Amino acid sequence: ETGVTQTPRHLVMGMTNKKSLKCEQHLGHNAMYWYKQSAKKPLELMFVYSLEERVENNSVPSRFSPECPNSSHLFLHLHTLQPEDSALYLCASSQKRGQGADTEAFFGQGTRLTVV
Amino acid sequence: LAKTTQPISMDSYEGQEVNITCSHNNIATNDYITWYQQFPSQGPRFIIQGYKTKVTNEVASLFIPADRKSSTLSLPRVSLSDTAVYYCLVGDGYSTLTFGKGTMLLVSP
Questions:
Q1: Do A45 and B98 count as a contact with CB atoms less than 8 A apart?
Q2: Which of A48, A49, B34, B94 could form a disulfide with B49 if both were Cys (CB 3.0 to 4.6 A apart)?
Q3: Which residues of B touch A33 (CB under 8 A)?
Q4: What is the DSSP letter of B80?
Q5: Does A97 touch chain B (CB under 8 A)?
Q6: Is A84 helix (H, G, I), strand (E, B) or coil?
Q7: How far is A52 from chain B (nearest CA, A)?
Q8: A56, A104, A107 member nearest B43 (Cβ)
Q9: pLDDT class for A115, splitting at 50, 70, 90?
């Protein structure tokens, strides 16, 4: 248990569906992240939020839409996905953004997404 | 962002000490060195962070030479459960939290 909770743990959706992934942390952290990890590939950083403001968006297709309503919650809204979007989606949080001192990131267990 | 280079894979046996070295020749003055561990189908877990010399916690030690152009993660007496991917990250407070390919450590009986 890392203090970062993701739901659902598993999700199967059709290409025309709309679904949302949820991430929640009550660690008092100010930065939150979405990552995608496809089979046998490195983690890909998708979005970074710092103090509820999106500060990084790494050329992610618009069919992925993040939302950070408050510092404890992060959502990833999905619509019209493709089969190649099937992957493990990981949420993380840290006290401060970046890789400096005291930036230990805590990851959730992830959502295993399958697009059919 | 400092570029890091680490071995793609390493093999070890239970009970041995494992040292994984990461090269970061263009490390900047404000950069910290951080290591994470990732098991299959799980998110990475923070192991240790350092700036210079040696840092030790209950899990591992991190050795950083004076020039800081490399660092070595040392895992004492590994067990089968230490089989995982280990990532070396170098950056400062403004750096993107980006993971590379990491080192796949396989521990055998």
A1: yes
A2: B34
A3: 97
A4: G
A5: yes
A6: helix
A7: 16
A8: A107
A9: very high
A21 within 8 A of A75, measured Cβ to Cβ: yes
Enumerate residues 6+ apart whose C-beta is below 8 A from B86.
Answer: B6, B20, B35, B36, B37, B38, B47, B73, B102, B103, B105
Q: What is the per-residue pLDDT across A56-88, written as a single tens digit (0 to 9) for each?
A: 777 899 999 999 999 999 999 999 999 999 999
Binned average pLDDT, 10 residues per bin, chain B of 109 residues: 89 98 94 95 94 95 97 97 96 86 96
Partner-chain residue, chosen from A45, A101, A109, that has the shortest CB–CB distance to B97: A45
User: Which is it for strands B53-56 and A87-94: parallel, antiparallel or unpaired?
Assistant: unpaired
pLDDT of residue B75: 98
Give yes or no for residue A1 having a pLDDT over 80. Answer: no
Q: Any CB–CB contact under 8 A between A33 and chain B?
A: yes
- The rounded radius of gyration (Å) of the Cα atoms in chain B is 13
Quote the pLDDT of residue B1: 60
Residue numbers in A near B99 (CB within 8 A): 35, 42-43, 45
Q: How many helices (H) does chain B have, and how many strands (E)? A: 0, 9
